[in-house]
Every structure is written in C-alpha cells, then in structure tokens.
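Can't attach files on this board, so I'm pasting raw text. These are the components:
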Amino acid sequence: MRLKFVFANLVVWLFAVFFLFATASARAASGDMKIEATLIWATNDKSDPNPNHKPVAPKIREKLKELPLKWANYFEVNKVTLDIPKGESRKGKLSDKCEVEVKNLDGAQVEVALLGKGDPVWKRVQSLPKGEVLVFGGNAQNATAWLVALERIK
Amino acid sequence: MDFDTQLKLQAFLDGELPEVEAREVASWLARDAGATGLLNELRNTRKAMKDSEPNVRLPESREFYWSKIEREIQRLEPVAQTTQSVSPFEFLRRLLMPVSAFAVLVVAGLITYIQLGLGGSSHSLETEVAMANSSAFTYHDYSAGMTLVWLPFPAENELAKNGPPATIQ
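---
Top answer:
Structure tokens for the assembled complex are below.
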C-alpha cells in the first residue's frame, strides 16, 4: 500500500516535470512569427483609378472599421508576408519607395520600422499577439490616406 | 410485614439503629416469631456471604505490591513507543504529501505563467522612436486587437520623398 502510494507520487512528479518542459519547449518553438503587411489606400471614392488595386480583404476591412478613420473605402495596393524567426528581422517592399522592416524581438514583441526610400522614418516597439493588427497611417493628397496594416497570423 | 419494617430489621442486625429504637426492635422480636425468623434468615445470609469471600493475603506489603505494578507499567511504555517508530516508507509518504501538493501548485503556477506569457510582453511595453516628427498619435482598441499609429507627415513628403504627389504606392 505504502509502496503504491510512493510510486504514484513519483509518477505524478515525473509527469509534472515532463509537462513543464514540454510546455516550455513548445513555447520556445512557437517563438517564430508570420506577419502579413499590407499597403492600403484609403479614400471616399467608390473606385480606385488603378485597376491593379483591389478592395481589402473583408477581415481587414472589418478591423479598419473599428478604428476612428473617416474613409469609406480601402484598396489593397500591395501585400507581403514575412516569416520572422525569433530574434531576427525581415524586410518587405510594399512599393517603390515604401518598405517595412519587422524584427521579432522575443516571440511576442516586434520592432517595426517604416522606411522611405531606404531610410527609416518611424520605428515602434510593441507586443503583437497572434490575430492582432498594427496599423500605421498618414494623410495623403485629395483627402485620402495611406495605411500599412501589419497582422500577425502566426 | 411491610418494607420499612424489613429495612429496620436489617438495620438492627447491622447495629445501625439508635439505642432506643434497638430496644423497641428487640422487644418486638421477643413477641413476634415471624420477625425473629426473618432476622435469623438475614443473619445466615450475611454469614454465608462473608464466609464465601476469598481471603487473599499479599505476600508483601501493600506499598511494595503497587510499586511493582507501577514499575512494570513504566517498563512497558518505552516498548510501545519503539513499536510505533516511523518506517522509511511512512516517512517518505509523510514527506511527499505536502511536498507534492506544493509542487503541483508551483507547476500549475509556472504553466499559467508560461502559457499566458506573463514574463514576456504586455501592452504597456511600448516604445516609439520618431525619425522625422514626434507629433504622431496612437490609438488602441484592445477588444478588437487593433493599434493605430497616425503619423503626421503626408506620404508625398516623407515616405515617398521626391516622388509624385500622393504616391506612397
């Protein structure tokens, strides 16, 4: 009886230690990020003069509606997907003059740099959990705006 | 003969009555043959009970007899304690119970800590470095999982420096 009890205790201990290490390992392995960066043109016009532009995905559109933005339509100019291992950075070209560089700091935080003509013009560090979206934006001519939406999809 | 009279007769036999009452009972016994018979019966019964008791005598003094019993009790007590000594398994079991409970709590806490990423980032850990202008504003919508950073410069002035108007793209 006593031997069984001691054995059961040891088994529980071993399982606990194994589970702890497995969880830690899984977390370490899941430190990689996959981020989708989309350059968006915001306008109140119903159509985009550039036929290569298409309306943004409904998911992004719904998210943008949550923000205090005044534009009625959003068109996707370009989209890049960045696979970023933990501790590394990746650069994505959104247009001839606009690039975004994202560094995966610790699996949870990102350092995002906007580059204009290769020079960093803005840098921001923040946590970006899976499913969350970080949007940079600014006014453009004729009451339009540009947006760079970064969505972490992994 | 009623019950009280019988009790008085028993008290007379035991010598418990006052002298006056004892004389009255004696005169009554001289007159009443039934009472005399009952008295004889009570006397015989008492004698029989007294004779049947075993007359045990201790071979030693009373104090010595009880001191022997006391010493025997004291001698047996340490033996009883020795038989209750804890076995290694029992000791391990007693040790493991609280330690296991504590370990389970610690492991659960660690797992929660790891799973929730409490050791990592939080929304409050945000830094921003403005390369061109610091008058940007940030809007958070935690329920929707959205962060908006509105930069002060128009596209044609900064991101698309020297390019055609409104041509960030």
